[in-house]
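Q: I'm writing a short methods note and want an example of a predicted protein-small molecule complex. Could you take the sequence and the SMILES for pyridoxal-5'-phosphate and return the bound structure as C-alpha coordinates? Please keep the output block clean; save any remarks for afterwards.
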Amino acid sequence: MREKLIFDLSREGRKGYSLSKNDCPELPLESIIPSTFLRKAPADLPEVPESEVVRHFVRLSNLNHHVDKNMYPLGSCTMKYNPKINDYTSDLPGFSALHPLQPAETTQGALQLMYELAEMLREIAGMAAVTLQPAAGAHGELTGILLIKKYHEAQGGAKRHKLLVVDSAHGTNPASAALAGYEIISVKGNADGRTDLEDLRQKLDSDVAALMLTNPNTIGLFEKDIQQMAKMVHDNGSLLYMDGANMNALLGITRPGDMGFDVMHYNLHKTFSAPHGGGGPGSGPVGISEKLVPYLPVPIIVKEGTTYKLSYDRPESIGRMMNFYGNFAVLVRAYTYIRMLGPDGLRRVSENAIINANYLLSLLLESYDLPYPKPVMHEFCLSGDRQKKAYGVRTLDIAKRLLDYGFHAPTIYFPLIVSEALMIEPTETESKETLDLFAEALLSIAREAETTPEVVLAAPVTTPVKRLDEAMASRQLNICCS
Ligand SMILES: *Cc1c(COP(=O)(O)O)cnc(C)c1O
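A: Understood, no commentary inside the block.
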Protein backbone atom coordinates (compact mmCIF):
# COMPACT_ATOMS: atom_id res chain seq x y z
CA MET A 1 0.00 0.00 0.00
CA ARG A 2 1.24 3.42 -0.90
CA GLU A 3 2.03 5.39 2.21
CA LYS A 4 0.29 8.72 2.67
CA LEU A 5 2.66 11.59 2.07
CA ILE A 6 2.38 14.72 4.12
CA PHE A 7 0.76 16.65 1.27
CA ASP A 8 -2.02 14.04 1.07
CA LEU A 9 -2.77 14.57 4.75
CA SER A 10 -3.16 18.31 4.45
CA ARG A 11 -6.59 19.75 5.32
CA GLU A 12 -7.35 23.42 5.29
CA GLY A 13 -7.21 24.94 8.75
CA ARG A 14 -5.27 22.18 10.47
CA LYS A 15 -2.40 23.68 12.43
CA GLY A 16 0.80 22.38 13.91
CA TYR A 17 1.38 25.36 16.17
CA SER A 18 -0.41 27.40 18.79
CA LEU A 19 0.50 31.03 19.29
CA SER A 20 -1.02 33.60 21.58
CA LYS A 21 -3.03 36.38 19.97
CA ASN A 22 -0.92 38.98 18.22
CA ASP A 23 -1.07 42.20 20.23
CA CYS A 24 1.26 44.20 17.94
CA PRO A 25 -0.08 46.53 15.31
CA GLU A 26 -0.12 44.78 11.95
CA LEU A 27 2.06 46.57 9.41
CA PRO A 28 1.45 46.09 5.72
CA LEU A 29 4.14 43.66 4.47
CA GLU A 30 5.07 46.04 1.65
CA SER A 31 6.28 48.53 4.25
CA ILE A 32 8.84 46.02 5.54
CA ILE A 33 9.82 43.92 2.48
CA PRO A 34 10.22 45.39 -1.03
CA SER A 35 7.25 44.22 -3.10
CA THR A 36 9.46 42.52 -5.72
CA PHE A 37 10.44 39.99 -3.05
CA LEU A 38 6.91 39.27 -1.93
CA ARG A 39 5.04 36.14 -3.05
CA LYS A 40 2.27 36.71 -5.53
CA ALA A 41 0.36 33.65 -4.29
CA PRO A 42 0.52 31.90 -0.92
CA ALA A 43 3.07 29.07 -0.61
CA ASP A 44 1.63 25.61 -1.17
CA LEU A 45 2.44 24.23 2.27
CA PRO A 46 0.71 21.26 3.86
CA GLU A 47 -1.62 22.11 6.71
CA VAL A 48 -1.14 19.35 9.24
CA PRO A 49 -1.07 18.98 13.03
CA GLU A 50 2.19 18.62 14.92
CA SER A 51 1.68 14.86 15.33
CA GLU A 52 1.68 14.36 11.55
CA VAL A 53 4.78 16.50 11.16
CA VAL A 54 6.63 14.34 13.69
CA ARG A 55 5.47 11.14 11.97
CA HIS A 56 6.51 12.57 8.62
CA PHE A 57 10.08 13.15 9.75
CA VAL A 58 10.34 9.84 11.63
CA ARG A 59 9.11 8.06 8.48
CA LEU A 60 11.65 9.92 6.34
CA SER A 61 14.45 9.05 8.76
CA ASN A 62 13.50 5.38 8.49
CA LEU A 63 13.61 5.34 4.71
CA ASN A 64 17.34 5.87 4.87
CA HIS A 65 20.02 3.90 6.64
CA HIS A 66 21.84 5.63 9.47
CA VAL A 67 24.11 4.70 12.32
CA ASP A 68 21.32 5.24 14.88
CA LYS A 69 19.38 2.46 13.12
CA ASN A 70 22.00 -0.24 12.67
CA MET A 71 25.66 -0.97 11.96
CA TYR A 72 27.21 1.07 9.16
CA PRO A 73 30.50 -0.68 8.34
CA LEU A 74 31.63 1.67 5.58
CA GLY A 75 35.39 1.12 5.42
CA SER A 76 37.60 4.21 5.78
CA CYS A 77 34.59 6.32 6.77
CA THR A 78 34.54 5.45 10.51
CA MET A 79 30.78 5.45 10.91
CA LYS A 80 30.87 5.18 14.68
CA TYR A 81 28.00 6.00 17.01
CA ASN A 82 27.92 9.75 17.69
CA PRO A 83 27.16 10.40 21.37
CA LYS A 84 24.13 12.66 21.75
CA ILE A 85 25.88 14.78 24.36
CA ASN A 86 27.89 16.23 21.46
CA ASP A 87 24.70 17.68 20.03
CA TYR A 88 23.64 18.99 23.42
CA THR A 89 26.88 20.93 23.89
CA SER A 90 27.04 22.25 20.34
CA ASP A 91 23.45 23.49 20.73
CA LEU A 92 24.16 25.47 23.91
CA PRO A 93 23.12 29.04 23.11
CA GLY A 94 26.50 30.35 24.30
CA PHE A 95 27.97 28.54 21.31
CA SER A 96 25.17 28.26 18.76
CA ALA A 97 23.98 31.89 19.04
CA LEU A 98 27.41 33.47 18.54
CA HIS A 99 28.06 35.59 15.49
CA PRO A 100 31.46 35.06 13.86
CA LEU A 101 31.98 38.81 13.57
CA GLN A 102 31.52 39.45 17.29
CA PRO A 103 34.56 41.04 18.92
CA ALA A 104 36.93 38.54 20.56
CA GLU A 105 36.24 40.01 24.04
CA THR A 106 32.69 38.65 23.76
CA THR A 107 33.59 35.19 22.40
CA GLN A 108 36.23 34.11 24.91
CA GLY A 109 34.55 30.76 25.62
CA ALA A 110 34.48 29.79 21.94
CA LEU A 111 38.08 30.88 21.43
CA GLN A 112 39.15 28.96 24.52
CA LEU A 113 37.38 25.85 23.22
CA MET A 114 39.14 26.12 19.85
CA TYR A 115 42.50 26.82 21.45
CA GLU A 116 42.19 23.84 23.78
CA LEU A 117 40.89 21.53 21.04
CA ALA A 118 43.90 22.39 18.87
CA GLU A 119 46.16 21.68 21.86
CA MET A 120 44.52 18.31 22.48
CA LEU A 121 44.75 17.30 18.82
CA ARG A 122 48.37 18.42 18.78
CA GLU A 123 49.10 16.18 21.76
CA ILE A 124 47.12 13.22 20.37
CA ALA A 125 49.13 13.21 17.13
CA GLY A 126 52.47 14.52 18.43
CA MET A 127 52.59 17.53 16.11
CA ALA A 128 53.98 21.02 16.79
CA ALA A 129 50.83 23.00 15.93
CA VAL A 130 47.31 22.52 14.59
CA THR A 131 44.96 24.67 12.49
CA LEU A 132 41.24 24.01 12.82
CA GLN A 133 40.19 25.85 9.68
CA PRO A 134 39.71 23.18 7.00
CA ALA A 135 36.11 22.14 6.45
CA ALA A 136 36.70 18.45 5.66
CA GLY A 137 39.40 15.84 5.18
CA ALA A 138 40.02 16.68 1.54
CA HIS A 139 40.15 20.39 2.40
CA GLY A 140 42.71 19.53 5.09
CA GLU A 141 44.77 17.71 2.46
CA LEU A 142 44.72 20.79 0.24
CA THR A 143 45.72 22.97 3.20
CA GLY A 144 48.56 20.60 4.12
CA ILE A 145 49.84 20.44 0.56
CA LEU A 146 49.76 24.25 0.25
CA LEU A 147 51.84 24.39 3.45
CA ILE A 148 54.33 21.96 1.89
CA LYS A 149 54.44 24.07 -1.27
CA LYS A 150 55.07 27.25 0.70
CA TYR A 151 57.81 25.52 2.70
CA HIS A 152 59.68 24.45 -0.43
CA GLU A 153 59.28 27.91 -1.97
CA ALA A 154 60.79 29.41 1.16
CA GLN A 155 63.69 26.95 0.86
CA GLY A 156 64.20 28.06 -2.74
CA GLY A 157 63.00 24.65 -3.91
CA ALA A 158 60.05 25.74 -6.03
CA LYS A 159 61.13 23.36 -8.76
CA ARG A 160 59.92 20.41 -6.71
CA HIS A 161 56.78 19.74 -8.74
CA LYS A 162 56.05 16.07 -7.99
CA LEU A 163 54.01 14.53 -5.23
CA LEU A 164 54.30 10.82 -4.52
CA VAL A 165 51.08 9.04 -3.53
CA VAL A 166 50.95 5.38 -2.51
CA ASP A 167 48.58 3.37 -4.73
CA SER A 168 46.34 2.27 -1.85
CA ALA A 169 45.60 5.93 -1.09
CA HIS A 170 42.15 7.44 -0.75
CA GLY A 171 41.10 9.11 -4.01
CA THR A 172 41.11 12.53 -2.39
CA ASN A 173 44.92 12.35 -1.95
CA PRO A 174 45.90 12.58 -5.63
CA ALA A 175 42.96 14.91 -6.26
CA SER A 176 44.07 17.41 -3.59
CA ALA A 177 47.69 17.24 -4.75
CA ALA A 178 46.61 17.87 -8.35
CA LEU A 179 44.45 20.82 -7.24
CA ALA A 180 47.53 22.32 -5.60
CA GLY A 181 49.32 22.06 -8.95
CA TYR A 182 51.44 18.95 -8.43
CA GLU A 183 52.25 16.14 -10.80
CA ILE A 184 51.13 12.91 -9.13
CA ILE A 185 53.47 9.92 -9.13
CA SER A 186 52.03 6.67 -7.86
CA VAL A 187 54.15 4.48 -5.57
CA LYS A 188 53.39 0.76 -5.65
CA GLY A 189 52.41 -1.50 -2.78
CA ASN A 190 54.14 -4.86 -2.26
CA ALA A 191 52.69 -8.37 -1.88
CA ASP A 192 52.38 -7.65 1.82
CA GLY A 193 49.92 -4.80 1.15
CA ARG A 194 52.42 -2.16 2.30
CA THR A 195 54.46 0.47 0.47
CA ASP A 196 57.17 -1.02 -1.76
CA LEU A 197 60.35 0.59 -0.42
CA GLU A 198 62.32 -0.20 -3.58
CA ASP A 199 59.72 1.52 -5.76
CA LEU A 200 59.76 4.46 -3.36
CA ARG A 201 63.56 4.67 -3.54
CA GLN A 202 63.46 4.79 -7.33
CA LYS A 203 60.81 7.49 -7.48
CA LEU A 204 62.32 9.78 -4.83
CA ASP A 205 64.27 12.37 -6.78
CA SER A 206 65.06 16.05 -6.34
CA ASP A 207 61.70 17.02 -7.91
CA VAL A 208 59.67 15.34 -5.17
CA ALA A 209 57.98 17.76 -2.76
CA ALA A 210 56.43 15.11 -0.52
CA LEU A 211 55.20 11.57 -0.06
CA MET A 212 51.57 11.23 0.93
CA LEU A 213 50.26 8.13 2.64
CA THR A 214 47.74 6.77 5.09
CA ASN A 215 48.89 4.84 8.13
CA PRO A 216 47.36 2.40 8.77
CA ASN A 217 46.73 2.25 5.06
CA THR A 218 43.33 1.82 3.49
CA ILE A 219 43.45 -1.97 3.67
CA GLY A 220 43.93 -1.64 7.41
CA LEU A 221 47.64 -2.52 7.54
CA PHE A 222 50.18 -0.62 9.56
CA GLU A 223 53.18 0.61 7.54
CA LYS A 224 55.83 -1.08 9.69
CA ASP A 225 58.71 0.58 7.86
CA ILE A 226 57.41 4.07 8.40
CA GLN A 227 60.54 5.34 10.18
CA GLN A 228 62.75 4.09 7.39
CA MET A 229 60.43 5.68 4.86
CA ALA A 230 60.52 8.95 6.81
CA LYS A 231 64.31 8.89 6.72
CA MET A 232 64.40 8.22 2.98
CA VAL A 233 61.96 11.05 2.33
CA HIS A 234 63.72 13.54 4.61
CA ASP A 235 67.20 12.65 3.31
CA ASN A 236 65.82 13.58 -0.10
CA GLY A 237 64.76 17.02 1.20
CA SER A 238 61.09 16.05 0.80
CA LEU A 239 58.30 16.13 3.38
CA LEU A 240 56.04 13.36 4.65
CA TYR A 241 52.25 13.80 4.64
CA MET A 242 49.90 11.60 6.61
CA ASP A 243 46.26 11.21 5.68
CA GLY A 244 45.00 10.95 9.24
CA ALA A 245 41.46 9.84 8.44
CA ASN A 246 42.46 6.49 9.94
CA MET A 247 43.43 7.89 13.36
CA ASN A 248 40.72 5.68 14.85
CA ALA A 249 43.36 2.93 14.98
CA LEU A 250 46.08 5.00 16.64
CA LEU A 251 44.60 7.04 19.51
CA GLY A 252 46.76 6.76 22.62
CA ILE A 253 48.84 4.00 21.00
CA THR A 254 51.20 5.79 18.65
CA ARG A 255 51.55 9.26 17.11
CA PRO A 256 52.18 10.39 13.52
CA GLY A 257 54.56 13.08 14.81
CA ASP A 258 56.71 10.39 16.44
CA MET A 259 56.72 8.41 13.20
CA GLY A 260 58.27 11.37 11.39
CA PHE A 261 55.29 12.95 9.62
CA ASP A 262 55.58 16.66 8.86
CA VAL A 263 51.94 17.27 8.03
CA MET A 264 48.71 15.43 8.68
CA HIS A 265 45.00 16.05 8.64
CA TYR A 266 42.48 14.71 11.11
CA ASN A 267 38.89 13.90 10.21
CA LEU A 268 37.02 15.16 13.26
CA HIS A 269 33.73 13.98 11.80
CA LYS A 270 35.11 10.43 11.62
CA THR A 271 37.49 9.76 14.51
CA PHE A 272 36.02 12.34 16.87
CA SER A 273 32.35 11.55 16.29
CA ALA A 274 30.30 14.15 14.45
CA PRO A 275 27.47 12.87 12.27
CA HIS A 276 28.57 12.66 8.65
CA GLY A 277 27.76 10.91 5.44
CA GLY A 278 24.93 13.08 4.16
CA GLY A 279 27.24 15.81 2.95
CA GLY A 280 26.83 17.82 6.14
CA PRO A 281 29.56 19.93 7.71
CA GLY A 282 32.83 18.18 8.49
CA SER A 283 36.12 19.32 9.90
CA GLY A 284 39.63 18.47 8.75
CA PRO A 285 42.19 20.17 11.04
CA VAL A 286 45.82 20.00 9.99
CA GLY A 287 48.73 19.22 12.28
CA ILE A 288 52.24 20.23 11.32
CA SER A 289 55.83 19.87 12.46
CA GLU A 290 57.91 22.80 13.72
CA LYS A 291 59.34 23.79 10.35
CA LEU A 292 55.91 24.55 8.88
CA VAL A 293 54.60 26.71 11.73
CA PRO A 294 55.31 30.09 10.05
CA TYR A 295 52.99 29.21 7.15
CA LEU A 296 49.84 28.32 9.15
CA PRO A 297 46.58 29.79 7.81
CA VAL A 298 45.39 33.02 9.46
CA PRO A 299 43.95 33.85 11.86
CA ILE A 300 45.56 31.78 14.59
CA ILE A 301 44.27 31.83 18.14
CA VAL A 302 46.80 33.02 20.69
CA LYS A 303 46.57 33.04 24.45
CA GLU A 304 47.92 36.06 26.30
CA GLY A 305 47.67 35.54 30.05
CA THR A 306 44.10 34.38 30.44
CA THR A 307 42.80 36.12 27.31
CA TYR A 308 42.35 34.57 23.86
CA LYS A 309 42.94 36.61 20.71
CA LEU A 310 42.80 36.11 16.96
CA SER A 311 46.16 36.95 15.42
CA TYR A 312 46.50 37.95 11.77
CA ASP A 313 50.10 39.08 12.09
CA ARG A 314 51.67 36.17 10.21
CA PRO A 315 53.62 37.50 7.23
CA GLU A 316 54.51 34.06 5.86
CA SER A 317 51.01 32.55 6.22
CA ILE A 318 49.42 30.74 3.28
CA GLY A 319 46.39 32.95 4.02
CA ARG A 320 42.87 31.92 4.87
CA MET A 321 41.53 28.50 3.96
CA MET A 322 37.99 29.29 5.00
CA ASN A 323 35.81 32.24 5.87
CA PHE A 324 35.90 32.66 9.63
CA TYR A 325 37.41 29.90 11.77
CA GLY A 326 36.24 26.45 10.70
CA ASN A 327 33.01 24.50 11.20
CA PHE A 328 32.59 25.54 14.78
CA ALA A 329 29.72 23.20 15.76
CA VAL A 330 31.81 20.19 14.65
CA LEU A 331 34.69 21.52 16.73
CA VAL A 332 32.42 21.65 19.80
CA ARG A 333 31.37 18.04 19.18
CA ALA A 334 34.98 16.83 18.89
CA TYR A 335 35.98 18.79 21.99
CA THR A 336 33.10 17.22 23.96
CA TYR A 337 34.02 13.75 22.74
CA ILE A 338 37.70 14.08 23.68
CA ARG A 339 36.94 15.61 27.09
CA MET A 340 34.33 12.94 27.78
CA LEU A 341 36.75 10.07 27.06
CA GLY A 342 40.03 11.47 28.34
CA PRO A 343 43.39 9.91 27.38
CA ASP A 344 42.55 6.40 28.66
CA GLY A 345 39.16 6.43 26.98
CA LEU A 346 40.69 7.46 23.66
CA ARG A 347 43.16 4.61 23.86
CA ARG A 348 40.32 2.18 24.58
CA VAL A 349 38.51 3.50 21.48
CA SER A 350 41.39 2.42 19.27
CA GLU A 351 42.06 -0.84 21.08
CA ASN A 352 38.41 -1.83 20.72
CA ALA A 353 38.28 -0.69 17.08
CA ILE A 354 41.22 -3.01 16.36
CA ILE A 355 39.79 -5.92 18.37
CA ASN A 356 36.40 -5.55 16.66
CA ALA A 357 37.96 -5.55 13.19
CA ASN A 358 40.06 -8.63 13.87
CA TYR A 359 37.18 -10.48 15.54
CA LEU A 360 34.84 -9.79 12.62
CA LEU A 361 37.52 -10.74 10.12
CA SER A 362 38.07 -14.09 11.86
CA LEU A 363 34.34 -14.88 11.46
CA LEU A 364 34.31 -14.10 7.75
CA LEU A 365 37.45 -15.85 6.59
CA GLU A 366 35.70 -19.17 5.95
CA SER A 367 33.63 -17.68 3.14
CA TYR A 368 35.55 -14.71 1.75
CA ASP A 369 39.08 -14.25 0.43
CA LEU A 370 41.55 -12.02 2.26
CA PRO A 371 44.12 -10.85 -0.32
CA TYR A 372 46.69 -9.50 2.16
CA PRO A 373 47.82 -11.20 5.37
CA LYS A 374 46.32 -10.32 8.76
CA PRO A 375 46.36 -9.09 11.51
CA VAL A 376 44.71 -5.83 10.62
CA MET A 377 44.24 -2.57 12.43
CA HIS A 378 40.80 -0.90 12.52
CA GLU A 379 39.49 -2.19 9.18
CA PHE A 380 40.05 -4.93 6.60
CA CYS A 381 39.50 -5.51 2.96
CA LEU A 382 38.02 -8.75 1.68
CA SER A 383 37.69 -9.78 -1.94
CA GLY A 384 34.52 -11.15 -3.53
CA ASP A 385 36.57 -12.88 -6.25
CA ARG A 386 35.57 -16.38 -5.15
CA GLN A 387 31.84 -15.56 -5.42
CA LYS A 388 32.30 -13.80 -8.74
CA LYS A 389 34.30 -16.57 -10.40
CA ALA A 390 32.27 -19.50 -9.09
CA TYR A 391 28.71 -18.14 -9.14
CA GLY A 392 28.69 -14.88 -11.11
CA VAL A 393 27.78 -12.92 -7.96
CA ARG A 394 29.73 -9.70 -7.76
CA THR A 395 30.70 -7.59 -4.77
CA LEU A 396 28.04 -5.06 -5.81
CA ASP A 397 25.39 -7.79 -5.48
CA ILE A 398 26.67 -8.86 -2.05
CA ALA A 399 26.60 -5.22 -0.90
CA LYS A 400 23.02 -4.79 -2.15
CA ARG A 401 21.91 -8.00 -0.46
CA LEU A 402 23.27 -6.76 2.89
CA LEU A 403 20.67 -3.98 2.75
CA ASP A 404 17.96 -6.66 2.87
CA TYR A 405 19.53 -7.93 6.08
CA GLY A 406 19.20 -4.45 7.59
CA PHE A 407 22.86 -3.41 7.41
CA HIS A 408 24.53 -0.67 5.45
CA ALA A 409 26.90 -1.99 2.81
CA PRO A 410 30.67 -1.81 3.30
CA THR A 411 32.81 0.34 1.04
CA ILE A 412 33.10 -1.52 -2.26
CA TYR A 413 35.56 -1.50 -5.17
CA PHE A 414 38.00 0.56 -3.09
CA PRO A 415 40.93 0.53 -2.72
CA LEU A 416 41.64 -0.25 -6.35
CA ILE A 417 44.46 -2.67 -5.48
CA VAL A 418 41.94 -5.28 -4.30
CA SER A 419 39.68 -6.79 -6.94
CA GLU A 420 35.97 -7.03 -6.01
CA ALA A 421 36.90 -5.21 -2.79
CA LEU A 422 34.67 -5.29 0.29
CA MET A 423 36.21 -2.90 2.76
CA ILE A 424 34.80 -3.24 6.25
CA GLU A 425 35.29 -0.98 9.27
CA PRO A 426 33.15 -2.09 12.20
CA THR A 427 34.37 0.66 14.63
CA GLU A 428 34.60 0.30 18.40
CA THR A 429 30.98 1.22 19.07
CA GLU A 430 29.47 -2.06 17.83
CA SER A 431 28.85 -4.80 20.39
CA LYS A 432 29.92 -8.42 19.95
CA GLU A 433 26.25 -9.34 19.41
CA THR A 434 25.93 -6.87 16.52
CA LEU A 435 29.20 -8.03 14.99
CA ASP A 436 27.94 -11.63 15.20
CA LEU A 437 24.70 -10.69 13.44
CA PHE A 438 26.58 -8.83 10.74
CA ALA A 439 28.93 -11.79 10.19
CA GLU A 440 25.92 -14.14 10.03
CA ALA A 441 24.40 -11.94 7.35
CA LEU A 442 27.56 -11.96 5.21
CA LEU A 443 28.01 -15.72 5.67
CA SER A 444 24.38 -16.31 4.77
CA ILE A 445 24.83 -14.21 1.62
CA ALA A 446 27.86 -16.34 0.70
CA ARG A 447 25.65 -19.45 1.01
CA GLU A 448 22.94 -17.80 -1.07
CA ALA A 449 25.51 -16.95 -3.75
CA GLU A 450 26.24 -20.68 -3.94
CA THR A 451 22.71 -22.08 -3.79
CA THR A 452 20.32 -19.32 -4.96
CA PRO A 453 22.44 -16.70 -6.72
CA GLU A 454 19.33 -15.19 -8.35
CA VAL A 455 18.22 -13.96 -4.91
CA VAL A 456 21.48 -12.05 -4.43
CA LEU A 457 21.41 -10.73 -7.98
CA ALA A 458 17.90 -9.32 -7.46
CA ALA A 459 18.68 -7.57 -4.17
CA PRO A 460 17.66 -5.38 -2.50
CA VAL A 461 13.97 -6.27 -2.22
CA THR A 462 13.09 -4.93 1.24
CA THR A 463 14.27 -1.34 0.84
CA PRO A 464 12.01 1.60 -0.13
CA VAL A 465 13.57 1.61 -3.60
CA LYS A 466 14.93 -1.46 -5.33
CA ARG A 467 18.20 -1.62 -7.23
CA LEU A 468 19.00 1.69 -8.84
CA ASP A 469 21.00 2.71 -11.81
CA GLU A 470 23.35 4.63 -9.52
CA ALA A 471 24.92 6.79 -12.22
CA MET A 472 21.46 7.83 -13.41
CA ALA A 473 20.08 8.28 -9.89
CA SER A 474 22.65 10.92 -9.05
CA ARG A 475 21.68 12.89 -12.17
CA GLN A 476 17.91 12.45 -12.11
CA LEU A 477 17.18 12.60 -8.42
CA ASN A 478 13.69 11.37 -7.64
CA ILE A 479 13.10 11.24 -3.90
CA CYS A 480 9.49 10.18 -4.16
CA CYS A 481 9.56 6.50 -3.32
CA SER A 482 6.13 5.37 -4.50
C1 LIG B 1 37.21 10.18 4.38
C2 LIG B 1 38.61 10.15 3.95
C3 LIG B 1 39.18 11.27 3.33
C4 LIG B 1 38.42 12.50 2.92
O1 LIG B 1 37.73 13.12 3.97
P1 LIG B 1 36.47 14.05 3.67
O2 LIG B 1 36.13 14.64 4.98
O3 LIG B 1 35.40 13.14 3.14
O4 LIG B 1 36.87 15.07 2.65
C5 LIG B 1 40.52 11.19 3.01
N1 LIG B 1 41.25 10.09 3.26
C6 LIG B 1 40.71 8.99 3.84
C7 LIG B 1 41.59 7.79 4.10
C8 LIG B 1 39.38 8.98 4.21
O5 LIG B 1 38.85 7.90 4.78
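A: Remarks, as requested: The chain has 16 helices and twelve strands. The longest helix spans residues 328-364.
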